[in-house]
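User: Fold this one for me? It's Glycosyltransferase involved in cell wall bisynthesis.
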Amino acid sequence: MKICQITPYWDVTGGITTVVTNLVNELIKRENEVYVLSSDLKKTDDNLFKLSNSFITKNKEILAILRRIKPDVVHVHAHGTLLPATLIYKYFFNNKVKLLCTFHTKPSSGSELTKTQNNRSKLRDAFVNLMMHLLDYNVFVSEDLVDSYKKYMGVTTTKNNYVIYNGISKPNVDEQRALRFKEKIEIEDKTTVFSMISNLQWDLKVIGVGKLIQAFDKFNKQVDSNTKLFIAGDGEFRAYLEKILKEVNNENIILLGQISNVEELLFLTDIYCHISPQEGCSMAILEAMVMEKNILTVHGGGNGEIIKDEINGIIVPYDDNLILEGLIRSYKKKDDDSMKKKAYLDATTKYSWKSITDNYINLYLKE
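Assistant: Here's what I get for Glycosyltransferase involved in cell wall bisynthesis.
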């Protein structure tokens, strides 16, 4: 098949980038002819097309490229702004093309940190809803995300909605480099390591990290002082966390900032924490699963669809006291391998890129 992937993210670090690049690589392995269109490209070639950032110019470019390469499938990711040209192509130039869009993140209703409301345009939402009706398939990365689009955007389409979770593959970790990193961030052999990886650009995620910091501070002081929490990530709301860190004044909680070696941090981690209710399908949770880590997360977003309490991890309500209880439960079970093994089994079967790509190809070929 000749498949065109259109994505807002390709080179920038992030969950959508990880998903799209892995899907593309898996499709190429299966001898499909794959093209990528994105504004986020550092280099181009015969199969990589850089798009403008301007809405009108970008859609003109998409239409021109599609007319030239004549794909069998056009697969858009994340942004409704990428859809108009693809719909024009389908309905005016090639009605046999399969057209689908994968929606990865929750629509925003505003920012709790900046105290601003996202005054959604009813006209804009109606236009997006219309485009979704015109697509062959709308793909969501969790059931919860389907509900969010219905709630926040009034999405009414149901007949062509599908849920396909994100995929994961086990990273290759250089153990010697990981041990040098362990020394660099001053982890003692008997220290129990907690960690969380988060983009600090999204306010609800940052608020969740703040709740984790406050809960871990109590845990560290009341339960076991020989524990450390490492937070990896950076973004607009980092100062919010720095203020909380100053208030708790706990040297065992370390904000690492953006790091390129998250797999080494996960390798050193005993308990991975993901305290965020704003997730479609968390790549960080899947990464912790495939690396056989104990996992603590909270209900909200797609978390509860991936993690089942005391089966492949621990999941608690998004509540300050219950997050602390979750830390204690996770700590008590840190030497119990059963949840880690089940998490790994899920990651390497249900969420393997082979399985996820099979699901997408089934849609590409669906009559």
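One thing worth pointing out: The longest strand covers residues 33-38.
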